[in-house]
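Handout, section B. The chain below has 395 residues.
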Amino acid sequence: MNGPAFLLAVNFVIAICFSLVFVVVSTRSRSRTAALWFAAGFAVASLSSLCELLVAYTELIRFWAFGAFAAVLGGLLLLLIGVGELYGRKIKFAYACVFLAASTVLDMWIYDLPRGTVAHAFSYQAPFAIVVLTGAASVFLSTRRLIIDRALGALLLVTGLHFFAKAGLAVLSGAGTTAKDYIHTNYALISQSSTAVLVVAVGLTLLSVLVLEIMADERSNSERDALSGLPNRRGFENGVKAAMSHAANVRHAVIICDLDYFKNINDTYGHHGGDLVIRAFGDLLQLMAPKSAVLGRIGGEEFAVFMPNTTAEMALLLANALRSGTMGIQIGALSPSFRVTASFGVAEVEQGQEFVDAMRNADDALYEAKRSGRNCVRQATPSALPRSAPIKIVK
């Protein structure tokens, strides 16, 4: 087995391995469909290596030569569909089939042209370049702007252009007088080597995109309360840090909410009833809070709302609206006479103040609301002494 034949075998093994890995990744990825397209693309492309070997070592030269062309192009088209699925620029499978058929007909038409000529070399490589460059465009035109996405777009651009470079190299160095001679040329060694490198690079980059998505999802799940659908305490605190780092204003506000007599709800209607109330209140928060707000379930029946670039007065308006909305919650599985109420504490995050101190002030205001009979809103008066901030009664 000479060098090009060995590289063909290596390319086959690499492509099959990537196909299997993408199948495994699809079981955990939110982009499952894209991962399966990638798996199919590498599986189909792997057949081109076998076809190239059969061209060199069997008498069905023309048949296997067309098979090698169709396998490479078919695999690239499946990868393109996957890229489109991943980056929100979907490509219809029917269109891909039409392009594959038209390109295969073109390959048949140029087959008898002298190999290594400009007409043959560029006509042969152009369909591959068009498909890969279309994939690069899909990435660059998408709304995703992570470094890994830009790296993938750049890599696809280089891979697409490399097909034109291969055509130029075939013209300059020659690609054999017949398809059977190809595997014994220096051009074949260079071509297969460059293809192997780029196949590995593209495969690893696509895999990295999907793995980073899985990691982000796992992190999101670890920071999200499954019952209410809101971030848990850790997710809330991380959300507040991110919001404050991007906020233009130095004044913010925080609200802490606590469902009144929640133990009685559990005792009367069971934990299932309590879960329904938690879920309903979480839905109310998501419905009424502004989009810029950071929400969280920070305890059993305790919730928090962080409002960046917001004064305490605006937070008070939201707290009172939430209090009224809470009394309007109706849960079909519970008694028609059942009513939910909640108490609210509001505090402003003063300039230079630690957020934990503002939370403590809001918590103090919440307990004042509870001491005042519950189902009301209290505000912590701004103070340079966050631990003992006085409480302002808001009717």
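Note. The first helix runs from residue 3 to 26. Compare this with the example in section A.
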